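Exercise: predict the fold of this chain.
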Amino acid sequence: MDKKQTTYPAPVAPATLYRDGPNMARIVFVGDSTLELVHHWMLEKLRLANEDGVTRFILDVESATPDFPPSALIEEIEFFGENAPRGIRIAYISSEMRIARHFMMIRAAAFAKGLDVEVFDTVDDARAWLGD
């Protein structure tokens, strides 16, 4: 399995990108989760989808602080639906209820844009759902 790792230093994007195979990318967020950070990674995921053929994303927000605002996640879903190829699946990793408590809104936005999203407690569960 191809595992490339790219770390983007703060303040631009405190996160690490792993390529977990030809069509899967995992992004592990650490530190502050600002709207600027969310926007930066929306653009990076779009690039991976359009240029590299990535169709499966795992977004691990377990170590991100403070919580991602739900508006940023909905904005991401709408952005993907309008600009990414069809068939994109996104799995969020968060054992806390920070995403899960807003997931009904996120799922509705995803469905309206033709995307498939889920929230999981573990990377293994996310990979199983993504079809790894």
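Check your answer against the key: Helices lie at 35-52, 70-83, 97-100, 103-112, 123-130.
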